[in-house]
Amino acid sequence: METLRTGQAHVFGNNIDTDQIYPARFIEYTEEADIKKYAMAGSDNPDFVQETQPGDLIVAGTNFGCGSSREHAAITLKGNQVGAVVAESFARIFFRNAINLGIPVITCPGVHAHVQAGDRLQLDLKAGEFRDLTNGWTAPVEPLDEYIMNILSHGGIKPLMRALTSQGKVRD
Q1: Domain boundaries of the chain, sorted by first residue
Q2: What are the Aconitase A/isopropylmalate dehydratase small subunit swivel domain coordinates in residue numbering (predicted)?
């Protein structure tokens, strides 16, 4: 797994709920190829999909991913190859869904006040450091434990379980 993530900032505010990340009006879609078309369609940046490049980072305030437990919200970000979500805090279920799908979700106090949309960012998961390369702001991030890093390094919980099963460490 690449532990150094570099990309453009896409900034959102506080309390970005799952209906802003993936609006319920699109819930009929179940495949990632369809779901990803509607990432952030309910937010104040409905052009997110057109503006995002693989590896870009989402920066947000507090309580990112609040609302429902729908996994679609995390799937749509994965489908758009978001490099990580860096926020001041996360809703618990969204945090777990994102990790299980292999998306780094990183808590960084104060991040929302220091990053502007379009800034060039760098996140070092291994060193636990976040940098805004545009304005020079640097901050430590809350480290992810070894188990979460293992999930991320396999691309999600299902690929990790497949790998462990094939190694005989987990039985079917």
Answers
A1: 4-166
A2: 35-103
Q: pTM higher than 0.90, yes or no?
A: yes
- Render pLDDT for 67-106 as a digit per residue (tens, 0 to 9): 988 899 999 999 999 999 999 999 999 999 999 999 999 9
Instruction: Give the integer Cα–Cα distance in Å for 31 and 35.
Output: 6
Q: Which CATH number, 3.20.19.10, 1.25.40.10, 3.40.50.410, 3.40.190.10, labels domain 4-166?
A: 3.20.19.10
For residues 172 and 168, what is the distance between their CA atoms, to the nearest angstrom? 9
* Token pair of 31 as six digits: 């495949």
Q: For residues 9 and 45, is the Cβ–Cβ distance under 8 A?
A: no
Give the CA distances from residue 28 to residues 7, 18, 22, in Å, rounded to whole numbers and listed in that order: 31, 15, 12
Question: Which residues fall within 8 angstroms of residue 93, CB to CB, at 6 or more apart?
Answer: 65, 69
Q: Which of 10, 4, 7, 1 is nearest to 87 (CA)?
A: 10
